[in-house]
Amino acid sequence: MNIHEYQGKEILKSYGVRIQEGIVVRNPDQAVEAAKRLTAETGTGWHVVKAQIHAGGRGKGGGVKLAKNLDQVRDHAKAILGMNLVTHQTGPEGRTVHKILIAQDVYYPGPSEPKEFYLSILLDRAKGRNVIMASTEGGMDIEEVAEHSPEKILKEWIDPRVGLQPFQARKVAFNLGLEGEAFKEMVKFIQALYRAYEDTDASQFEINPVLKTSDNKILAVDAKVNLDDNALYRHKAFEDLRDLNEEDPLEVEASAHNLNYVKLDGNVGCMVNGAGLAMATMDIIKLSGGEPANFLDVGGSANAQTVEAGFRIILKDPNVKAILINIFGGIVRCDRVANGVVEAYKNIGDIRVPIIVRLQGTNAEEGARIIDESGLKVYSAVLLKDAAARVKEVLA
């Protein structure tokens, strides 16, 4: 589950991670009041107005502005709130900005030059360990650094049996070229960040940039935090951090029906039970000359209600030209799924795209008979190659 920058920073602060202070607001008047409050609390004279959406690259898209006075705070707030912000992570459709963060200016003059770093923690699935990734090239797209200067990305893997060791935090800070007070501050920052990552069951913490201020403080200027959905039962309070405005409406609807759905850009909708079979089904669609329009796993207990909900969600995608249902009858019986398909088809009505149903497993023959005798625009298949041939046929 992705959360906003301001929410991620609140989590980090609760674990002792120093952050760029800020106040989230929803209108220009609140923005001005927030700026006055920040000035009183932090002494900042300038303020940063930051769009709050679930995407990076906000600055390049015009979603981050520096305000040198209260009039500029109001003007920037008016310009950013309600804008359709397009970044390299939103896609061309962009995202509407519903709230902004008024943050303190942390790039103030001092005895040394400010310096930006990149720091993230995530799971390296290949090694089965968490990894701390750091770079001196903070403030930049890390993808660009990885492509053109991979040697500038430092990695430190954490043994899950002992956790992050103090020498590893010192090693990262040293390799970033820090010394003196800034070195000590970075070590504390990394240790606190890792505690927050583990305690919250996060799947990713990305701080870009981490700033060494002109007086050698280390703080998080941004925070991209992704929490593991599967662990939310251990963190009930985190459920309130979900922002449905930032999620695809079809994915939100699917989650309400306990369906695992991810929208894609293709023309063949697919409904499958089991993630592995869903991946194989998408491969079959591509081999048949189509492109998968979605990933949809209805789980091992598919019934008429889940099939109908899946149908309705898939059909809301105007790009879908055909639907492939691929069910393995292990826990669920194929004849029950077939009856569910027929019932859902009749309930929805006016389905104008062909539907291919491939049933295999318990009562597969009975399921195929039900489909074939339904009189509906539904085609049955037994083998995957048969389903692929049907998809190719209906797309021709």
UniProtKB/TrEMBL annotation:
Record domain ATP-citrate synthase/succinyl-CoA ligase C-terminal: where: 271-390
Annotated source species: Adhaeribacter aerolatus
Family: Belongs to the succinate/malate CoA ligase beta subunit family.
GO biological process, any: tricarboxylic acid cycle
Listed name of the protein: Succinate--CoA ligase [ADP-forming] subunit beta
Cofactor: Mg(2+)
SUPFAM superfamilies to which the protein is assigned, alphabetical: Glutathione synthetase ATP-binding domain-like, Succinyl-CoA synthetase domains
GO molecular function: ATP binding; magnesium ion binding; succinate-CoA ligase (ADP-forming) activity; succinate-CoA ligase (GDP-forming) activity
Keyword Nucleotidyltransferase: no
Keywords annotated in UniProt: ATP-binding, Ligase, Magnesium, Metal-binding, Nucleotide-binding, Tricarboxylic acid cycle
Domain ATP-grasp fold succinyl-CoA synthetase-type: from-to ranges: 2-210
Record-linked InterPro entries: ATP-grasp_succ-CoA_synth-type (IPR013650), ATP_grasp_subdomain_1 (IPR013815), Succ-CoA_synthase_bsu_CS (IPR017866), SUCC_ACL_C (IPR005811), Succ_CoA_ligase-like_bsu (IPR005809), Succinyl-CoA_synth-like (IPR016102)
One Pfam family from the record: Ligase_CoA
